TrEMBL record:
It comes from Pseudonocardia petroleophila. Residues 246-358 form the ARB-07466-like C-terminal domain. This is ARB-07466-like C-terminal domain-containing protein. Transmembrane segments: none annotated. InterPro entries: ARB_07466-like_C, Lysozyme-like_dom_sf. It holds the Pfam family VldE.
Length: 379
């Protein structure tokens, strides 16, 4: 049993109320889930049991926790138990069992039966893979929602999903009592061993999520609202920049407002984590930013290659802007090392490879526009 599994079960904060899962919903949703989106998971890459239960996982998250991508369920369980439903790790708190490696107190809070022995007997519900998922996913989701509420209220830079992971591996007080939501040595009661455990756990789950994710690319945006076309008068940089810059052109301000209307205000836990428009960009004399004609949208933390749901969020925005380029006066987009404009033919995928123009390192997370989508707009 890996170290993260046992520590995660012991450290999980009991912040949730007892969860009632309407299991009857799952039967009707499982068949649908098998034919619909599976949270960006490439089923051919995941462990065999995860592949078998993916429709069940998708049904549970759809019914009880749409904020939790199935991809993250699979990645975290791999980090916890390697998808062995009978896994058990012994510690001073009575041990942890099952796919999510929950201790007995948390398992019973989630609605499961107490264990008769330690380790639990073979017929214990905590060791039944399907039952474990039905109870543990909503339990973990409660931590996700609590972390999201705290992180949004405090403006801490950690994503809600990472807050969920910190809760599971070290306790939710490490989220609330740390400066960023991820504890460093010496804060939130975390020493160096604790801080390293948390950091390694987050890295492990992120690595697994990237390994199991479906090949990223343009996604369907048929479910998203159509933007209101820009019908104003083209002008210079005269509109306010709501991201804190000096000014925007009316067309750029209109496009930004439509993005916010459809995708929500940027912030922790939102599809767009942060945004910035007007900027001097002194190092790039050809930039549209100091003209008020461009905005950058970050689905995840700046400087980091997004993955999993954050990567899908970026593709949703890029695909939506491309789909409605005429209505929004889109001049060009740069995203995931690719450049696209209305006059650019697709080459080996979406748009053409982005070279950095001799100014940016196209292999860097920021220079290659992997951590953010750049959108320029016509006057």
């Amino acid at each position: 049993m890996n170290r993260a599994a046992g520590a995660g079960a012991a450290g999980l904060a009991a912040i949730t109320a007892p969860i009632v899962l309407i299991v009857a919903l799952l039967g009707g949703l499982t068949a649908v889930a098998a034919e619909t989106a599976t949270g960006g998971v490439d089923a051919t890459k995941v462990p065999p049991l995860a592949q078998e239960l993916l429709p069940h996982i998708t049904a549970i998250t759809t019914a009880t926790c749409p904020e939790l991508p199935p991809l993250w369920v699979i990645a975290e369980i791999t980090a916890e138990s390697s998808w062995d439903p009978t896994a058990y790790s012994s510690d001073r708190n009575g041990g942890a069992a099952g796919l999510y490696q929950l201790n007995e107190a948390n398992w019973t809070t989630a609605g499961g039966r107490p264990w008769e022995t330690s380790p639990p007997p073979a017929d214990a519900d905590v060791l039944d893979a399907r039952r474990h998922l039905e109870l543990a996913i909503p339990f973990v989701c409660a931590n996700l929602k609590a972390a999201a509420t705290h992180l949004q209220a405090t403006g801490k830079p950690t994503s809600a999903l990472d807050g969920m992971l910190v809760c599971h591996i070290a306790g939710c007080s490490r989220v609330t009592d740390s400066a960023t939501g991820v504890p460093t040595a010496g804060e939130a009661g975390c020493d160096r061993t604790c801080a390293d455990l948390v950091a390694n756990y987050l890295d492990r789950v992120h690595t697994l999520a990237a390994q199991y994710s479906a090949e990223p690319g343009p996604v369907s945006v048929d479910d998203l609202p159509v933007p209101t076309p820009f019908d104003g008068v083209s002008a210079l940089c005269t509109a306010d920049d709501p991201t804190g810059g000096r000014c925007l052109t009316p067309a750029t301000r209109h496009a930004h407002d439509e993005i916010v209307r459809v995708f929500g205000q940027p912030g922790p836990g939102a599809p767009i984590r942060s945004a910035g428009c007007w900027d001097e960009h002194a190092w790039n004399p050809d930039s549209d930013h100091p003209r008020g004609q461009a905005c950058d949208y970050f689905p995840d933390t700046a400087g980091r290659f997004p993955e999993g749901q954050e990567l899908q969020n970026g593709w949703r925005l890029a695909t939506w802007l491309r789909t409605h380029a005429a209505a929004l006066n889109v001049k060009y987009l740069i995203w995931q090392g690719r450049f696209w404009s209305p006059d650019t033919a697709d080459t080996d995928g979406w748009g053409r490879p982005y070279t950095g123009g001799g100014i940016y390192d196209a292999d860097d997370a920021t220079g290659g526009h992997y951590d953010h989508l750049h959108a320029s707009f016509e006057l």
